[in-house]
Amino acid sequence: MKSENNEHREPPPPESESDSTGGTRLVLTMGGIGVISGTLLVVTYLWTQPAIERNIAEALERSIFDVLPEARQSVTFAVVDDRLQPLGDGEDAPVKYYAGYDDGGQLAGVAVEAAGQGFQDTLSVLYGYSPDCECILGFKVMESKETPGLGDKIETDPDFTANFDALDVSLGPDMEEVLNPIVMVKHGQKTEPWQIDAITGATISSQAVANILRDSSVVNVPLFIRNRQVLNDGNSSDDLTGTN
Predict the structure, then answer these.
(1) What gap in Å lies between CA 70 and CA 61, rounded to an integer?
(2) Angle at alpha carbon of residue 91, lines to 88 and 93, rounded to 5°
(3) Contacts from 193-198 at CB under 8 Å and sequence distance 24+?
(4) Where are the domains of the chain?
């Protein structure tokens, strides 16, 4: 038999107008906060972006002269129909090369941006190439998330950075292919000028650097040799950028 309480259960009271108004007000308030926050983020981005881009450009400029020690001024080049040509003011290109010139206006080398997969994430580097020695004569990490204390030694370990004092990337007799593409060897086993002596405990990061430089040099070194006269003449460009 059903209890008397169950037979006479009363329906819940209807939602009051004040409760409904309060819920609507809460939704509108949260929406307004979201709009204001989004607007502030956009304004902050637009305000800081020019400064960020300027800082990146200045860091790149300093790095060009780091990897080309003899350079005192530079000209930016791009590839057009397999030929290098200087970029004018306001011109841009998806791939750029930075030719450096010494105090006498002679070509000191070309700085090249390159990137590839590191141990943790994409590893971005800048290296300097000299057509005189047909070698890489400078190397700098531009962006890295390699393991602190191990993989990040590619930036600081003196034995590793010594690989780039004169890393051979000379062309074969046909002048179209690198004769001995860059390879990594275990620490202490380097016997050839095109080999990279790895860092003990950071083999993956060392291999990543070797892969990045090999893949970039086999494409770009023949391009630089084919366009050496254009690079030599670049010091007469109106678009020279000098050291501070």
Answers:
(1) 14
(2) 120
(3) 193/135, 193/166, 193/167, 193/168, 194/167, 194/168, 194/169, 196/160, 196/163, 196/167, 197/159, 197/160, 197/162, 197/163, 198/160
(4) 51-242
- Rounded to two decimals, what is the model's pTM? 0.75
Residue 227 burial (10 A CB sphere; 0-12, 13-18, 19+): buried
For residues 213 and 65, give the distance between their C-alpha atoms in angstroms, rounded to a whole number: 19
pLDDT at position 235 is 65
Radius of gyration of the chain from Cα atoms?
A: 29
What 3-state DSSP class applies to 118? coil
Q: Which amino acid is at 147?
A: T
Task: Give the tokens for residue 6.
Answer: 């169950």
49 falls in which pLDDT band (50, 70, 90)?
A: low
Beta bridge partners of 130: 135
Kindly list the distances between the CA atom of residue 46 and the CA atoms of 34, 54, 57, 127, in Å, as whole numbers in the listed order.
Answer: 18, 13, 17, 32
Q: Which is higher by pLDDT, 32 or 244? A: 32
- Separation CA 75–CA 88 (nearest Å): 9
CA angle 181, 186, 192 (to 5 degrees): 45
The tens digit of pLDDT for each residue in 189-198 reads 999 999 999 9
Percent helix, strand, coil in the chain, to 5, is: 40, 25, 35
Q: What is the pLDDT of residues 117-165, one digit of tens each?
A: 988 788 999 999 999 999 999 999 998 776 676 567 899 999 999 999 9
